[in-house]
Specification:
The chain has about 160 residues and is mainly beta. The chain has two domains: about 1-75, no CATH class; about 80-160, RNA polymerase II/Efflux pump adaptor protein, barrel-sandwich hybrid domain (OB fold (Dihydrolipoamide Acetyltransferase, E2P)). About 10% of the residues lie in helices and about 55% in strands. The strands form three sheets. It has a nine-stranded antiparallel β-sheet, with no helix packed on it. It has a four-stranded antiparallel β-sheet with strand order 10-17-15-12, with no helix packed on it. The protein has a four-stranded antiparallel β-sheet with strand order 14-13-11-16, with no helix packed on it. β3 and β4 form a beta hairpin. The longest helix has 13 residues, at about 80-90. It is elongated and about 55 Å long. About 10% of the residues are buried.
Length: about 160
Amino acid sequence: MARHGADEIPLEIERHGSGYRVKIGDRWMIADLVDAGPYFRSLRLEDGTQLALIHHRDGNRHEISLPDTTIHVEITDPLSLKRKRREDEMGGVGVVRAMMPGRIVRVLVNKGDRVQKGSGLLVLEAMKMQNEIQAPADGVVEEVYVQAGDTVEGGADLVRIE
């Protein structure tokens, strides 16, 4: 979901070859975005339109400067919202579960490891995107229920932290 001023705009982004397939509202388009410096980007759309832009990001807030205008957009990742709700419900410790079905790409912790809130536990690939699942609180990894290559369903136990 993207917010521009008071407007909320449905937004979907998928990898498509070396670029992206983007759905804004009801319209799909193909776009290639190339980094040309720390903040400078080159954007080419499927109709051949090419734009040079400057992009600054602060969390979910993005400032995109084009030659004749600057746009301020807030992009909300539904996975991060779901993760935040889950952290609030868990109170920090307990079993970390998969938010959606996917494949475990990497396990970053072992049983007995001490973790801090926000540190990576594992990487889950879902909907063609790799998502780092983070520790909801400080604690000790009591159990790791998965290994790299495993396929999991939404709600599956991944790691227990106490």
